[in-house]
Amino acid sequence: MTTETIISITNTPFLKELVRQIRAQDSMGVYRSWSDELILKPLILTKEQKRKISVEGDVEPITQLRITAFYRAIATLVEQETGLLCQVVINLSHEGFGWALVFSGHLLVVSKTLRDAQRFGYESMEKLAAEGEKLTKSAVELATKYREVTNA
Q1: Angstrom distance (rounded) from CA 82 to CA 45
Q2: DSSP string, 26-45
Q3: CA distances from 148 to 12, 30, 67, 75, 84 (A)
Q4: DSSP label at residue 122
């Protein structure tokens, strides 16, 4: 991956918002001097790296925060696009199974089953951006199509 590719990828609306969400969770200011690429790097895991992560133990708190930041980024972009308030609910067992839900009013705009959350991540920055953009686009379409349900 070239530097040019990294720069264009981190300029996607989803990745920009994801970085913003991760920085917002940094109460100690650790990420203040980090580049966007460095902040997103823990979300990039090859298949081999994923295999090395045990699913036997509890999900680490930092991994839970990354999952939450991912779905909050989607919710924030939906809010910006539609003007509707969104809420994120992450229900995750200590074993790494659960759901990630994004609601707007009474409408469920994103519903993802989480499995092996200990291994949450994507093979590349492109795949991370693509998944975030895909879920955001789908959520915006649902919120726009069923706006009356979001206002109920």
Answers
A1: 32
A2: -TT-GGGGS-HHHHHGGGB-
A3: 30, 42, 29, 18, 11
A4: B
Q: Are 90 and 100 in contact (CB under 8 A)?
A: yes
Q: For 98, list phi and psi in degrees, rounded to 5.
A: 165, -155
Residue 128 has pLDDT above 90, yes or no: yes
Using one digit for the tens of pLDDT, what is the confidence trace for 55-112? 988 999 999 999 999 999 999 999 999 999 999 999 999 889 999 999 999 999 999 9
38's tokens: 């460095």
| Dihedral sign (CA 63, 38, 21, 24) | positive
The Cα 78–Cα 145 span in angstroms is 13
Q: Which residue has the tokens 């920055």?
A: 125
Span 118-127, pLDDT tens digits: 999 999 999 9
